[in-house]
Amino acid sequence: MNYIQDRDYALTLLTLASEKNPGPWVDHSIHVARATEIILRELNKFGFNLNIDLGYNAALLHDIGRYKGVTKSVVHSYDGYIYLEELGFSGNALVCVTHSFPHGNKNIEFAAAWNLVPNYMRATLINILNQHSNYDMYSKVITLCDALADSNGFTTLERRLVSVGLRHGTTLYTSLH
């Protein structure tokens, strides 16, 4: 899989996306990248061999699909996936999807507002998750960091869940997600 290695290029993509749709998602993405960098550095101290720039950039762009607008559903995951795939960065594209599905292809209905996702997008997302059911360490760490960072910085999982719930609503599955 091809990942963006250059931080300046990743930041340029985020900046261009934020010009199309400014909002708190941009600062959230920056904080997710910072948290990812910190955790990957610590994992490397314990024998992992993780590329810090690769993880940082993937985290920075995990929500890039929001350039099309903010939705209550995982449509941004699909939009980010398509955008980064078209640029040739399949690894970064995959992270756009995996961060929204912490359970992988299991319990897919846990995803935020799954019922709002058009059928063709659902089919694509399910296919991606079926092909990549074993998340690599980058996807796992970025998914965790997505839940630990908001637009103001680092937070607790509980505060983040309440924040997301207030903005996007909750379902029977929110606490399981």
Euclidean distance between termini CA atoms:
27 Å
Radius of gyration: 15 Å
Determine the mean pLDDT. Answer: 89
From the 3D structure, determine the CATH topology: Hypothetical protein af1432
CATH class: Mainly Alpha
Largest sheet: 2 strands, antiparallel
Cross-sheet strand order for the largest sheet: 1-2
Tally of DSSP β-strands: 2
Structural class: mainly alpha
- The total number of structural domains is 1
- The secondary-structure element order is HHHHHHHEEH
Please report the number of helical segments: 8
Architecture per CATH nomenclature, i.e. the level-2 architecture: Orthogonal Bundle
Q: What general form does the structure show?
A: globular
What fraction of residues sit in β-strands?
under 5%
> Which regions are unreliable across 5 or more consecutive residues at pLDDT < 50?
none
Description:
It is a single chain. This protein is an all-alpha fold. It has one domain (7-168): Hypothetical protein af1432. 57% of the residues lie in helices and 2% in strands. The chain has helices at 7-20, 24-45, 52-60, 75-86, 90-98, 119-131, 137-146, 157-168; strands spanning 149-150, 153-154. The chain has a two-stranded antiparallel ribbon with strand order 1-2. The longest helix has 22 residues, at 24-45. The radius of gyration is 15 Å and the shape is globular. The two termini are 27 Å apart.
